[in-house]
Design brief:
Helix content: 25-40%
Radius of gyration: 19 Å
Number of strands: 6
Structural class: alpha+beta
Strand content: 15-25%
Largest sheet: 6 strands, antiparallel
Order of helices and strands: HHEEEEEHHEH
Strand order of the largest sheet: 5-4-3-2-1-6
């Protein structure tokens, strides 16, 4: 007589990397539905719904298969003067993935964990950043932000990189 295997053996498990790739795909869908960044040219955009807490979307670079952008509130950290909270996102058009590369200026994973972190620690860090982005995008959609509220920012002359370079000159 054949014995039934325990239920836990029959249910396939997702690895942490698979879970992270799922977060990337989910964030891509949220971001595309919310702001359609692939259709925007490089520059700065503001989404205002009249609550005094405007969202800023900086399209840093547009390439054939990727879009680099930064999502933040139009607020500055009193200590650093940089926008906070801030999420830098790389949108992969061909793979339909959106990856949060870092969430604060100067706080890339190398700054947080060193150059050679254990793989499990690196994946955990990326999972936290991308979970944060997903929840933030859901919140923005619930509040009413989206393509209809997004306008080109006339004060945002150029991309953040271009603005930094103009300050150096």
């Amino acid at each position: 007589m054949a014995q039934a295997s325990p239920r836990t053996e029959r249910i396939p498990r997702l690895s942490r990397l698979s879970w992270l790739m799922g977060l990337y795909a989910e964030n891509y869908r949220h971001l595309v539905r919310l702001f359609e960044p692939a259709g925007l040219v490089a520059g700065s955009y503001i989404s205002s719904i009249g609550d005094g807490l405007d969202v800023r979307l900086d399209v840093i670079e547009c390439h054939r298969y990727t879009v680099e952008l930064r999502l933040t509130y139009d607020l500055a950290d009193p200590v650093t003067g940089e926008p906070d909270p801030s999420a830098y996102v790389r949108l992969y058009r061909d793979a339909r993935q959106a990856e949060t590369t870092h969430c604060y200026v100067g706080r890339r994973w190398q700054d947080t964990m060193g150059l050679y972190p254990p793989p499990a620690e690196l994946i955990s860090h990326r999972m936290r950043m991308n979970t944060f982005l997903g929840k933030w995008l859901e919140y923005l959609a619930e509040r009413g932000h989206g393509v209809a509220t997004l306008r080109r920012n006339p004060d945002g002359a150029g991309t953040p990189t271009e603005r930094r370079l103009s300050l150096v000159r």
